[in-house]
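Ticket #4471: structure export looks truncated?
Reporter: QA, pipeline team
Priority: medium

Steps to reproduce: submit the single chain below to the structure queue and open the exported record.
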Amino acid sequence: MDLVKKVFTIYGLDDPLTDDTVGVFSEGLLAQYYSTFVAAGEDYLIDALEAGAEIEDMDLNDLYGMLADEAIQNEHIHLVLYNLAKGSRNHLRSFVRALDAQGITYVQQHLSQEDFEAVLEAEMETRMFYDSEGERVVACGGAVGGFGIRRGSGIQNGGSHDGGSGNGECDGTGCNEV
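Actual output as written to the record:
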């Protein structure tokens, strides 16, 4: 939400979010989805997990569609979309694994079978983020999006992944304490 707000601010766009109360939406279709998914998951764990999986399935389909849209060429928007997709892929993997643990197989409803399988076959995407070209950038020293994030080589300062000194050298593959 913070990244989306930054894009609105940078480009002087009106933020359509006028009320940040949970469950309140200015867009009627979003309000309908919210009501449907909340109702579906209120009583049973499996229903809640299936609702969560479908939300991420739908989100990814929408995000992939926006990334493929040739009319959207703005690198700030691409940066946000790639990183939102990363989060949705991780969430979808988690929901599907939780359903599997309950003996339930989630069948995608929005993504193509190929995209869905690719998400499930990949590992969780941690300690990295995506640049505006969709290239992985390893987080070295510091939190993703904060100080210490660099692409390529160089000394990084500001926190470490494993509780070390925070002074690590980044070669693009991860942090190595020096």
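Status: closed, not a bug. The export was complete when the record was re-opened. Leaving a note from the reviewer for reference: The longest strand covers residues 128-130.
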